[in-house]
Amino acid sequence: MLQARGLTRRYGGLLALDRVSFELHPGEIVGYLGPNGSGKSTTVNLVVGLLDPSAGELSLNGVALADDPVRYKRQIGYVPEEPFLYTHLTAAEYLTLVGRMRGIDDTLLERKVSRLLQLFQLHDSRYRTMSAYSKGMRQRVLLAAALLHNPDLLVLDEPFSGLDVNAGLLFRALLGLLAAQGKMVLFSTHRFDMVEKLCSRVVILSAGRLVAEQRVSEMDRAGAGSLEAIFVRVTEQPDYTPVARQILDAIGEA
Amino acid sequence: MTATRDRRWYHLTRHFFTGLFDLGFLSETGAESFTRLILGCCVVFFSFGLLLARIFSAMRALLPSPEAFRLALLADHAFLIALPMWIVSFVTVLVGHSLFPDETDYRVLMALPVPRHLVFGAKLLALALFTSLFIFSAHVALLPLSLLMSTGRFAGARWFVPFGAYIVASLLASGFSVIAVVAVQGLLILTAPPGRLLAVSAALRSAMLCVLVIALPLALRLPAQAGAFAAGASWLYAAPPVWFLGVERWLLGDVSRTYVMPLMAIAGAAVALTTALAAGTYASLYRRFDRVLVRPVPAGARAEPRLAWRRPARRARSRPVFAAVRTFTLLTLRRSVLHQGILVALSAVGAGLVTNSLIGAGVAGWFAGDARSSRALSTAMIWAPFALIYVASLAVRLALAVPIDQRANWVFRITESDGARVEQLAAAVHTVRRLGVVVPLLLMAPLEGMILGWGAIGVSAVASLCGWLLVEIVMRHWARIPFTCSYIPGKGFVPQSILIGFSSFVFFTTVGSGLAWFTVLKRPGAFVLDTMVFAAVLVLRRYRLITWRGTPLAFEDQLPVEVNPLRLSLD
Predict the structure, then answer these.
(1) Cα(B406)–Cα(B563) distance, rounded to whole angstroms?
(2) Touching check for B556 and chain A: CB below 8 Å?
(3) How far apart are CA B35 and CA B33, in angstroms?
(4) How many angstroms away from the CA of A75 is the closest CA of chain B?
(5) Which of B 282-321 lie inside 8 A of A, CB atoms?
(6) Residue of chain A with shortest Cα separation from B333
(7) pLDDT 10s digits, A170-221
(8) Which of A88, A100, A128 is facing B323, going by the closest CB pair?
(9) For chain A, what is the radius of gyration of the CA atoms?
(10) Which ipTM score applies to this complex?
């Protein structure tokens, strides 16, 4: 189980995340929503150990990040929002690099890399450097790299951006099966439709604070309306129609 | 509307021009620091230039006759033509990736209502402005020296006529060097096989940088070649700066020497050929912009690469993290134009120094069977591996310090651990040792064997020991996985850094080659000294391993703290 307790992060004088607490249980896919600048990426960076919290603590399956960061990070697979990769490497080279950094035995690693490249439809391009890959292909490489060591927690930051329909469907099916196997998935996204289809629970952030947390199946029963309606209400989003009108006026200006 | 359209030329040219100065691999702080470094180097070179002017002035005063002056002037002008040519070629090779509109320009600009001729025209104009800036600066910087060389007691009242001819010939020579680089790069774009363009381009640029750096010491020897000009030596026809000396003489109507007209003809043919090639490649790219620059790579067309991890070695199986970083390092050095360029260009400085030293010691005569210079040649040969090791080790270290895709380093940050850190850093030291010590030794071995005989084994052994010590010294504070940490060049006081670098080079090569002499001659005490060096290596290695266990990996380079507390109080 992932436990986040009172997570706080300051950048100089700016409070990016303010005492956020949540839990993630085995078999759960949790949608992590929030407008831009709400602290989503900061939370993700804290959870995967790329940033240190200013206050608060994180633990995964009883291992606290502060006490044993290596054991903690060993249980996590991460797909970042932007496909930051060493693009001068081929997909096979990159996966081998990550696998070795994770301490996977070379013989097993070679087998896994080969199978994953086949299954993620990257096999034909395996000898091309990733500089020639599309965004969707890079996204698939990142997912393969995140799954290589069979992690207990998968942290996904906008994983569907750039994926074509087939890859998106594969991704969805895969996440469902991973959850059925008892894996945890933290899924940060802007796409309400995906959250409604995939997630068992949703956590919503606004201005660095946790403003809502609810099971997706309970949303209709509670009469709260669609996820989008809830999101707009709890994050106090303004009506954007006047702004859209102003944009129209601006582009029509002679 | 017309005014707006006309300003597109200006905006696009400015865009391309500023792009030629872009140091994308450096952070904002790094770019600022790099500017400071360049300014510092300029100050040092300017001071050196003043010293050079005084030396030339003193040498001129010693010339005995007008003929000696004329021959010295020929050699000096060849040098003065060569220096700007070298600077401009070097800069043009450095920006080799921006000489033609590329795929990004195609995708971004062709989607806009911008005609193709505007894109190509603006690119050419930006390139012309950029190279003119360097041609102009180089000539202005050399103006005091060239004026000093052209005047003197034998120069006569009309000294400005040969000076003017020199300026015209030198500008033409610098222009030629730009066009030649453009032509080579253009031919490469048009002829390189699909999918290999980047790799071939990287290799070609590294090779060109290497040739240029090795040529620099040869250019610096030109002022001492008055004798060769008197005799009309055959190598004059193979030296591009001398071709343009032919142009200068022709402009002055001085065709009395037999080699002037052939040199003039070679210069004319070279300019015509390279201009035609450069213009042809530009025209061809203009017509086939979309097809040439956006060539799809056929899937599965490439053969399986011969990669280190395709055959998991015993060592890799037992040390996967070490193997991961080592492979990553070697692949990056093989594929990244920037890193390969740094490594090759700086190592070529060492190769240039060695070549220069061996030529000076009479290696050519030795090959021709002249045994008179064997003592000087042996000295130069024993010194050579130390010089090469020193320069190559620092070149590899610098190449490993410059980042690639820095935002992709998250994969190393989330897998960092105390145990893995030592392995990750050890891979960097291993690379510096292999490329900075072992490769130079292997490259020097055949020549050493020919000149020193069995003594070469002793020299190589001492050189490898000293090289190992050098690697331990330069890597003692190393705390980064290669290519993953931001880089701030010129962090220290530049003249001081240059002085330290130069002094340590002299110290390392002098002491190292002295120790090698001692060992080869089996002098008493040589074995003790060798053992002491070995002990120092072991101590430093131990210190390094202990330091690594307690130091976290660095992913952000830091400027040194500006205030150093004196700690005068007792508490």
Answers:
(1) 29
(2) no
(3) 5
(4) 11
(5) 297, 299-300, 302-305, 307, 309, 312, 316-317, 320-321
(6) A88
(7) 888 999 999 999 999 998 888 888 888 888 899 999 888 998 888 887 776 6
(8) A100
(9) 20
(10) 0.74
